[in-house]
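User: I need a structural model of MleR protein from Liquorilactobacillus sucicola DSM 21376 = JCM 15457 for a docking pre-check later this week. Nothing fancy, just the predicted structure tokens so I can convert them on my end. Input:
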Amino acid sequence: MKIRDLTYFSKLASLKNFTAVADYFSVRQPTITMAVKRLEREFDTTLVLRDQSHQSILITPSGHQLLKHAHRIIDEVELTNLDMAALNQEQVRFGLPPIIGHYFFPKAASRLAQAGLLSQLAVTETGSGELLTALEDGKLDIALLGSTHSLNNSLLNATLLAKHHFKIIVSPKSHLASQQKIAFQDLHDEKFIMQTEDFVHPTAFGALNKFSFINPNIIYKTGDITLLKNLVHENVGIGFLTETALTPQDELVSLALTDSFQPEFLISLVFRQSQLPSATQKKVIDILIQALRTDSYHQ
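Assistant: Understood. Predicted structure tokens for MleR protein:
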């Protein structure tokens, strides 16, 4: 079985037309026809049915079954090509979410710079969800990711670096500013300034909503943490933020939650299980673990 035949068949299932597939790959139509016939012989089945005009085709149940495996095989081959190429690259494709990048990663930056590795990082900055997808797709080598659950599984190698609590943040002018802790259900009448969906926070916030049987009023969403803090400081609303991102310079009041159920902000160093790290990647991984695990793992 040829990978190229599976690639042609996968595109045929999408375009439903032999000529269109041939044009897409800049080959002659018989090339596509022969690829399908080889697959049909290989599996002793019919994969496609042509209509009388030959203008379009139907995928048979056997074809749909093969298609499920074809997608996985093609993706794995592409991932293999990316991983093989990465072994020879000096640069490390590195994923870094904004909060972790601003408030957590700097602890390791000086060590990376001393080792001559900081300049080797090709950094992608976006939310943890998008970075996780990019990592799984082979577009990143390593990422520092935030989550509310362990990311360690059969596909990913995740080293937990820190567990941080989520806090309610309020303005010094807020009527809640005199409190040190509060139950989440007591916030049902408050106005919230929240992060956009590419952050981990909405997941944790939603879990607390369900646990407390409330539906808080979210009046504004932003992906800019500085803006969120400024709006809270001006008492426009209150916020829900990991303690990772809180500093004394914010001039905000943070309240601990008293609920028995509390999601945590987990920070992990993640790479794919199928990936053999290059020498440069190994050095980056070792430094990140040594630097960021120190005094950062909060139970």
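Before docking, keep this in mind: Residues 204 and 263 are 6 Å apart (CA to CA).
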